[in-house]
Design a protein that fits this description.
CATH class of the domain at 30-134: Alpha Beta
Number of helices: 3
Strand content: 25-35%
Distance between the termini: 80 Å
Radius of gyration: 25 Å
Number of strands: 7
CATH superfamily of the domain at 30-134: Formyl transferase, C-terminal domain
Largest sheet: 7 strands, antiparallel
Shape: flat
CATH architecture of the domain at 30-134: Roll
CATH topology of the domain at 30-134: Methionyl-tRNA Fmet Formyltransferase, Chain A, domain 2
Length: 151
């Protein structure tokens, strides 16, 4: 009641909020979301999921910044896959049919489902090695005739 009366009378003390700790903007910066590989799988998973979607946890693969999205802990035997060297990781990742498997310093695994490149292109992690391949569109005779009619 006393506080309400002080406010009503215009006599309530005003304490300016300090700038430090006043916002979460500093946490939301991309440069603060780099993945530190020297930690257990659970911590890696929490870091990736904690930065999913903004700003996105990232690392360097083949000299390019790659952002990881959609991680889950993987409690199974090591799956078959194609090795992928990740800067700072003690062990290469594995590109599998389900996504990219990365390893914590405890030997446990994290499955990452999506990757985004610096140019903004996002792909399923399982397609990492096939992302640059392009296939030519082949038309059937009927489709070729339709294309000619449209031209």
């Amino acid at each position: 009641v006393e506080a309400v009366h002080l406010i009503a009378d215009g006599k309530a003390p005003r304490i300016p909020q300090p700038k430090e700790g006043a916002t979460y903007e500093g946490i939301q910066k991309k440069e603060n979301a780099e993945i530190s590989w020297d930690q257990p799988a659970a911590a890696l998973h929490n870091w990736i999921r904690g930065h999913d979607k903004v700003p996105g946890a990232w690392t360097t693969i083949n000299g390019q910044v790659v952002t990881f999205y959609g991680s889950s802990l993987l409690d199974a035997s090591v799956p078959a896959g194609q090795e992928l060297t990740i800067k700072g990781a003690s062990r290469p990742g594995l590109v599998t049919k389900n996504g990219l498997v990365v390893f914590g310093n405890d030997g446990k695994m994290v499955l990452v489902r999506n990757l985004q490149f610096e140019d903004g292109k996002m792909i399923p992690a399982s397609k990492y090695f096939t992302a640059d391949e392009t296939t030519a569109l082949e038309l059937t005779e009927e489709e070729k005739k339709m294309a000619e009619d449209i031209r």
